[in-house]
Amino acid sequence: MLAVLLIYTTAVLTVAAQMNLTPLGNATQSSLHYSGKPQNAIEPPDSNKWSFDKCTHTSYGRTKAWWMFTFSFGYAYITDIKIYYREHFAYRMDGFKIYVTNTSTIPPDGYLCYEDPDPGLPNITQTIPCFQLGKYVIYYDTKGDGTYGTWGPTVELCYVVIKECPPSYYGNLCQSRCPVNCSGPCDLETGQCTDGCINGRFGETCELDAQCFTDSKMTNCTPEIYQLNPLSGPRGGGTILTISGKYIGSVNDSISIDISGVRCHNVTVGKPHFNGGATFTIRGEGFYNVEKITVERVDKHCDVLEDTSVVCKTPQNRRNQPNNQTVHVHFDDLTLPVNVEYVEDPTFEKFPVVYEYDKESSIQIKGRNILSGARLEDYRIHVGLDGSCLLTDIDMQLITCFPPKSVPRTNKTDLNTVHVIVDVGNIKAYIGDLHYKVDINTLAITVGIMTAALITAVVISVFAVIIIRKKKKRTIQEFEIELMTREEMIREASRKGDYFFL
Ligand SMILES: *[C@@H]1O[C@H](CO)[C@@H](O)[C@H](O)[C@H]1NC(C)=O
Ligand SMILES: *[C@@H]1O[C@H](CO)[C@@H](O)[C@H](O)[C@H]1NC(C)=O
Ligand SMILES: *[C@@H]1O[C@H](CO)[C@@H](O)[C@H](O)[C@H]1NC(C)=O
Ligand SMILES: *[C@@H]1O[C@H](CO)[C@@H](O)[C@H](O)[C@H]1NC(C)=O
Ligand SMILES: *[C@@H]1O[C@H](CO)[C@@H](O)[C@H](O)[C@H]1NC(C)=O
Ligand SMILES: *[C@@H]1O[C@H](CO)[C@@H](O)[C@H](O)[C@H]1NC(C)=O
Ligand SMILES: *[C@@H]1O[C@H](CO)[C@@H](O)[C@H](O)[C@H]1NC(C)=O
Ligand SMILES: *[C@@H]1O[C@H](CO)[C@@H](O)[C@H](O)[C@H]1NC(C)=O
Prior knowledge:
Immunoglobulin-like, 4 domains, elongated, Ig-like_fold, IPT_dom, signal
């Protein structure tokens, strides 16, 4: 299994969905022009398209115009307000203001969230952040529309969205939970308890126990330490300790702890680092003084790079164990727990058939979880015995790379076929075979050589035939001569009455 090392933080990042509050209330406005009623702005659609039954419309010729939203349930934790104004009518919106208030008085008396600045016309669709606790949201305009002196301001809102944090959340995205001992909600920006504490606590976030802390925040109680992490550190010192317990004083108190007479400070665990296997770096001090640094279930000792940093390999995740695990690193006989998150191993698809490679293009290797635990630089793609594929692109499902242009060495019988192996962490996956196409030039040369050979062969055989023929002819001639000679001899003999041949 590949492993990713995580630096755990205490913050839990849950982004609570912000809710649109407009369905939970009702709207009013300064006056009504035809059917441009105030509710039109809280009913869909969310668009700037105007008509009397989709947008609001207040009467002309007034000195002020307003639209007000009232929450049916009292207070709400508003985070932002989005408005859609009538299209092409930005000049009527010019100079508008948005308030959050606790009273319905006009002119508004409360928090001014936004005032359209001069010069220039406002955008007809705007999101206005406004972190406030309040009962009313008021769109307010006292500026005339500027076209006809007497028309005065008008409100033509087509849609309004008012967002809030759910109770007991705070932060820009409502991502943080209010302290548990707050009585009720907390400040939307800082998370401080606005309505006091419960459980006999006090302090801005109700973190302090009244029994033990006076107003000067000095502890009256004897500290109780539940846990010390790590319980020990390298001999040379250099360990940052996490202490949990009760009455340990405020966060910034300096607490010093000595282990076996050595002051501990500064050990952090570095980011994951892959290089042929999942490794991680531990930084601290005094590592040269440690004889042996090991990780549980890993045979190889960690490499001490320098006095302040050491690189260790992560152990294999045990079967049926959760993916988040604490791995213990041993410094001689001292132990440091390190959190490791194991992720799904990448898997790769085999080439369905031998990959015909044209020596030009890139090849693609498909898979899953390709980047879940590893990075581009952790991958090696072996082509044949001594080639490697040059990675150009990588994502979760696909690796793109360029194999070498000339055929690498191979252990296959066909010299133009090589294997492709993906090498990452402890994984070596055989993907399939790559066949280097025999290119045109080689083909031409081969054909040339073969033609030449053929011609030579033909020429040679022709010569051979000629020579053989010549030889035959000569033999025949010799035979004929001999025959004639013998004939001659016989004739001669018969003439002389010699019966020697009869
Ligand atoms: C909103 O107020 C109007 C006028 O008072 C009323 O007719 C309407 O029913 C109210 N709507 C809701 C959803 O309460
Ligand atoms: C409305 O009242 C609440 C409770 O008193 C207060 O926290 C809040 O700041 C007030 N809102 C405005 C806009 O004044
Ligand atoms: C209008 O919108 C544009 C682009 O979203 C933004 O840059 C500009 O600041 C906005 N103007 C006003 C007055 O809000
Ligand atoms: C909240 O109060 C209870 C009771 O005093 C206490 O046990 C708990 O630790 C407090 N929680 C926090 C986060 O302070
Ligand atoms: C602790 O120190 C930090 C930085 O020095 C400071 O921002 C913070 O307010 C301090 N906290 C307390 C409770 O004193
Ligand atoms: C702890 O580490 C920080 C940052 O590396 C360094 O500035 C500081 O001096 C170290 N503290 C000690 C006591 O060595
Ligand atoms: C492991 O821890 C990380 C970081 O805290 C978290 O995001 C993740 O969900 C955890 N995974 C499991 C399986 O618990
Ligand atoms: C060729 O080499 C690969 C990788 O080293 C190996 O997996 C494969 O078994 C070898 N094939 C033969 C026929 O030796």
